[in-house]
Amino acid sequence: MRDFDELIMRRALDLARLGLGYARPNPVVGCVVTHAGRIIGEGWHERYGSPHAEVNALAAVTDKHLLPESRVYVTLEPCAHYGKTPPCADLLISSGVRDVVICNLDPNPLVAGRGIDKLRAAGVRVETGVLEAEGRWLNRRFFTFQEKKRPYVVLKWAETADGLLAGRFYQPIQISGELARVAVHQWRAEEQAILVGTRTALHDNPNLNVRDWPGQNPVRVVIDKNLSLPPSHHLLDGQQPTLVYTYRERPARTNIDYIKLPEAEDLFPCILANLFERQIQSVLVEGGPTVLTSLLQHGLWDEARILRNPKKLGTGIAAPQLGIRHLHEQVTLGDDTLFVYHHYCA
C-alpha cells in the first residue's frame, strides 16, 4: 500500500506544480481521488482566489456515491478556516470521504493541525508524511515565508569562465545564451518579486518582466537610496507594480511605491521584513556584485542559480563567491552550465 500511496502522491505533487507562479501567495496544492486502485478525480489550486485543489478534485468525480469508499490524496493539509473560499476540511467531511492521505502539514497559524483535527473528529482516517521531503521542496517558498517570516530568496547571476560578470566599469556584457535567457524568464514567472540595486538599474536599464515564458510579471523591487534613477528608466514606467527602497521621501505614483528606509538599520533585513509585511513570498535577486555579496554575507539567501559560460573577459567585475554551499543540481543549457546551490543555515 505504501508504494501505491507514494505513486499517487507523486501524481498529486505533479498537479500542484502546475500552480507555480499562479497560486501565490498561496501554496501550490494538488489532490487526487482514488477508488479501488484507480483515479476517479484530480485537481490543483490553479490560481489565487480560485477553488482549492480539493474542490476541483471532488468536482471531477462523476459518481459521488463512490466518495465514502474512496481514498483522497492531498499535498498539503486541508484548510479549516474561511478565507477566499470555505474550509476544504469541511468539504471533505460533507462529501462523505472517510480516508485522507496528506503529504505536508500546513505551518500557517490559521491551519497548523486544525484541518487534520477536524477531519479526525469527524471520523476520517488521516495519514500524514507521505513524500514529505518532496512536498516541502515544492512549497519551499511557502514554508520559508511561514517559518522564517521573510521571503524565499533566490540569487541569480551569469559569469564567465574566468569568474567575471560585467565589464571593468560595470558596463553590461552579454554572457549567457538563448536557452539560459528563456530559463531566466521562467524563473521570473515563478517568483513573486524581482530585486536589483541602483547600479544594475542605472547601467542595465532592465524591464524585469516576463517576455519569453508564459506567466505573471513579478513585483519589481529596486534599491535606490538617493533616488538617482532617471524617470525615463524602465523601472519607473509604471507598467507593473514596483517598490523603490530609498532613504528619501517621495509620494507614490501609479504602480510605484516609495518606501523610506531608516539609515541606521541594516538594509536587507529591513527590506525583507517589509516584503514579508506585504505578503511577498519569494524574491529573485538579479542585482550586481554589491547586492549579491551583501545578501551572502548576511546569510539571507536560500538558493543560488549560477549560469557559467565558457567565454572569458580577461578583465572586469568579479562574480560573488559562495561560502556555505550545497550543489543541488547541474544542468547544461546550450553553451551555458547552470549550477544550483542551496544554503542550509545551522
UniProtKB/TrEMBL annotation:
Stated family: In the N-terminal section; belongs to the cytidine and deoxycytidylate deaminase family.
InterPro entries: APOBEC/CMP_deaminase_Zn-bd, CMP_dCMP_dom, Cytidine_deaminase-like, DHFR-like_dom_sf, Eubact_RibD, RibDG_C, Riboflavin_Biosynth_HTPR
Active site: 54 (proton donor)
Pathway noted in the entry: Cofactor biosynthesis; riboflavin biosynthesis; 5-amino-6-(D-ribitylamino)uracil from GTP: step 3/4; Cofactor biosynthesis; riboflavin biosynthesis; 5-amino-6-(D-ribitylamino)uracil from GTP: step 2/4
UniProt GO BP: riboflavin biosynthetic process
Classification of source organism: Bacteria, Pseudomonadati, Bacteroidota, Cytophagia, Cytophagales
Domain of life: Bacteria
Name of the protein this chain belongs to: Riboflavin biosynthesis protein RibD
